[in-house]
Amino acid sequence: MTGSLVPETRAWLEAQGFAPAGDAPWLEALTHGSFNGSGADEADYQRLEFLGDRVLGLSVAAWLFRAGDAPEGRLSQRLNALVSGATCARIARTIGLPQHIRLGKQARDDGGADSDKILGDVMEALIGACFIAHGFDAAQGLIYRLWAQELEGDVGKAKHPKSALQEWAAGNRRMAPLYEVTDRSGPDHAARFTVRVTVRNVGSAEATATSKGEAEKLAAKAFLEQFG
Question: How many C-beta neighbours within 10 Å does residue 118 have?
Fold first, then answer.
């Protein structure tokens, strides 16, 4: 890994509690693949994102297990919500991550710094870098601090809109909801998906998001608000 952290990014990392003793893992965690297209020769965040995803999952699962005696199904529901790309991206925005991601010019011009996919991945990569630099306990402590509001709040407690819609359809003796992608726009790193959900003989609703899964969830929510 060539290059070094700019002073503003180092100060930001220190302020967030990442304690960046050396530059290498943090540079890697903050580097998107498009950055190499500008002539740089830098490793991107993918390997650290792979690692951070597992550290995040184990840390959150352990917290949920200790927090009460909820059954496995409810634990899984909350875990999936708390470690989702949307949650990671929301926390990334909260701590001011977007301006520190190293993107190629085209990716930045295309809105890459505000992409849920990129923000979520980089957030996980930073957790991976923390694990590499300081060990599991430090990474877990960082997660519990950054995720405190989500862990103590209602994230993942409510039934997922797709599950709720499925049950609504069954309870009203309707066919299962049908989801279809009606539009996909933008480059791969900043794609937007529009999904329509239809329940036969009832109606349909649409929603747009930065991932197909999130668009399906929002469409199901919109359907229930309109017809439920």
Answer: 27
Strand 203-209 to 178-185 pairing: unpaired
Residues carrying an active site annotation: 53, 124
Sign of the CA dihedral running 9, 94, 215, 110: negative
Q: From the centroid of its chain, how far is CA 176?
A: 28
Share of the chain above pLDDT 90, in %: 66
Closest-CA residue to 25 (of 33, 38, 34, 13): 13
DSSP state, residue 146: H
Q: Percentage helix, strand, coil, to 5, in the chain?
A: 60, 10, 25
CA-CA distances (angstroms) from residue 84 to 53, 60, 144, 220, 228? 10, 11, 15, 18, 26
DSSP 32: -
- Cα 152 versus chain centre, distance: 18
Phi, psi of 198, rounded to the nearest 5 degrees: -130, 135
| C-alpha–C-alpha distance, residues 125 and 207, integer Å | 29
Give the tens place of pLDDT for each residue, 28-67.
999 998 887 655 567 899 999 999 999 999 999 999 999 9
Are 220 and 164 within 8 A, CB to CB? yes
